[in-house]
Amino acid sequence: MTGKPGAAAATRDGEVPKLSLPCSPSYDLTRKNKVVTVDGVRVKLQIWDTAGQERFRSVTHAYYRDAQALLLLYDITNKSSFDNIRAWLTEIHEYAQRDVVIMLLGNKADVSSGRVIRSEDGEMLAREYGVPFMETSAKTGMNVELAFLAIAKELKYRARQQAGEPSFQIRDYIESQKKRPSCCSFL
Ligand SMILES: Nc1nc2c(ncn2[C@@H]2O[C@H](COP(=O)(O)OP(=O)(O)OP(=O)(O)O)[C@@H](O)[C@H]2O)c(=O)[nH]1
């Protein structure tokens, strides 16, 4: 999933997904569940992957409209996937919930050659839109758990916020926890 959003929603175990889509034989939307434990509490994330179907943008509105979190991935070896992010952010601001948690991820950080998007470019774009950012690798797993954990923490914090509790700062948390790719994969 690159240059397009994946959506995550936290639910109680066993709950029926609340999102549905028009049935189309050529629209392949995959959903996976992931359970993360946050401060001893199990949080189930339903993850929807748009699976490269940009031409179905009008359909994707239907599912990210209700999402509690959106992971925007681009591929650091593919400039157009990075360029697409602005368009997605514009769409998200129009169609998603106002308090949706958004995270920008530059994937394939493991590649040692072929990188066309510098880490700083991702950081700058994220800063411009005020969203947390990190580079990930689905191949090595770098920062993948952290992305889901940070979202689960944020959603849990919002759901259980008690007066007087210190607020959870997702960007600070990510900055303190994220791993950076080795020296050789930078441009
Ligand atoms: N080296 C490396 N390869 C990756 C990584 N993530 C995905 N790939 C490879 O990139 C290719 C595309 O991966 P997908 O997950 O299908 O990416 P996608 O953008 O969802 O593809 P579409 O759904 O077809 O648009 C596959 O060959 C993956 O094995 C990564 O972090 N590192």
From TrEMBL:
Major localisation: membrane
Gene3D superfamilies in the record: P-loop containing nucleotide triphosphate hydrolases
Name of this protein: RAB37, member RAS oncogene family
GO cellular component, one term: endomembrane system
Organism: Phyllostomus discolor (pale spear-nosed bat)
Record GO terms (molecular function): GTP binding; GTPase activity
Pfam families: Ras
Entry membrane topology: Lipid-anchor
Organism ancestry: Eukaryota, Metazoa, Chordata, Craniata, Vertebrata
Annotated InterPro entries: P-loop_NTPase (IPR027417), Small_GTP-bd (IPR005225), Small_GTPase (IPR001806)
Compartments (UniProt record): Endomembrane system
Taxonomy, superkingdom: Eukaryota
Keywords, sorted A to Z: GTP-binding, Lipoprotein, Nucleotide-binding, Prenylation
Family of this protein: Belongs to the small GTPase superfamily. Rab family.
